[in-house]
Amino acid sequence: MRLTAFTDFGLRALMRLAGEPGRLFTTDEIAREFGISRHHLTKVIRELGAAGIVVTQRGSGGGFRLARAPEGISIGEIVRLLENRQALAECFRADGGACVLTPDCRLKGRLAAAREIFLAELDRSTLADCAYPARTDKLEELAG
Prior knowledge:
The chain is mostly helical. Helix content is 47%, strand content 6%. The chain contains six helices and two strands. Strands 1-2 form a two-stranded antiparallel ribbon. The protein starts with a helix and ends with a helix. The model has no long low-confidence stretch (mean pLDDT 88). One of its GO terms (molecular function) is DNA binding. One of its GO terms (cellular component) is cytosol. InterPro entries: TR_Rrf2-type_CS, Tscrpt_reg_Rrf2, WH-like_DNA-bd_sf, WH_DNA-bd_sf. This is HTH-type transcriptional repressor NsrR.
């Protein structure tokens, strides 16, 4: 499964926020740090805000931060949210797509099962596990 750039940008931004969970970041700051489009990142942050993953603050000194502790946000939850517009294959499209094999296709169920296994594996990791940069409190906990 290949993730979209939209999801990639979202994961990078969230991993960065998890590295300093109490801090406000700006889209300009994150876009510069990772060399990604500020315009596209703004769209991602808007969607993450609407879903309650990040909290945004407008005005001078504004920005965005995680709405919940990074330990409580799974990577699977983020991927499900940001990939929800992306059909795995033509037959998964909301409008039914243009697949000529439907309804006799015997592959769709296997693809759906594989997607669920993929997401279940991502559910095993949280933003805290993938924080960037790695949080020193987590490193000390693992070493100790």
